[in-house]
């Protein structure tokens, strides 16, 4: 994985830190592995890691309270079953009549809560005890642990980061954006967290707007490039990977802006373009369906990485 970063050809498919659907992860990893992707971002659960058996490199994600990547939506008593939430859920996590949320499919994007006219959806941080979960997943063979650290609690951030460093001696990643922290706090947090790390053993995943990459345009990915520039300007001994609103235009825009990135992580858009095929019951058995999805995935990776430095 380090070689991919140093050669600036690191492409990571984000299955979703909150994606606990074993079958969907199995399908995504198989498909994008066949398409040429080598690195996959996964939920920190043993069954999900085992489902990603086709992945060459596995990165597991954990987060601090309030981080959108570990949020789960929950229907409350205000719900009128109007169906608006189901319309905006791009991961098919909501069932209506009566409204229910399939927790294993909820990615915490918050779109359902934002559109609900009746405040019928709560957002709950699904926190995990790293001292319990990490010893169960590290032996399964993982290549990176990523801490999603976009919320504002410094003490919790330090506590979880120290726990990860104590239990795991491999590559680490920090996924961070500036929505809640601002530029100065983002840089202060990054510098503090990497201070005790050896040079180039840490990835900084420059998150633009988490889980916003549904469209393949420059506007969608603008904030990811801007976030990468802020980190690059500090000249830290870290790898910079763009994420959050990323698509096939991201690396082209980054190149135009003079960003010396090491790679890209793509989630929402990469999943969207194959969603129609991934959801078919006979996805693996039906070669016509599988090959259509494979062509889309291959073309997307090729188009994206053709813009690399």
What does this structure look like?
With 309 residues, the protein is an alpha/beta fold. It has 2 domains: 242 residues, Aldolase class I (TIM Barrel); 56 residues, 2-Layer Sandwich (Alpha-Beta Plaits), CATH 3.30.70. The chain is 39% helix and 18% strand. It contains 13 helices and 12 strands. The strands form 3 sheets. Strands 1-2-3-8-9-10-11-12 form an 8-stranded parallel beta barrel, surrounded by 4 helices. It has a two-stranded antiparallel sheet with strand order 4-7. Strands 5-6 form a two-stranded antiparallel ribbon. Helix 7 links the parallel strand 8 and strand 9. Helix 6 runs parallel beside helix 7 and helix 9 packs across helix 10. The protein is globular. The two termini are 18 Å apart. 46% of the residues are buried. The mean pLDDT is 91.
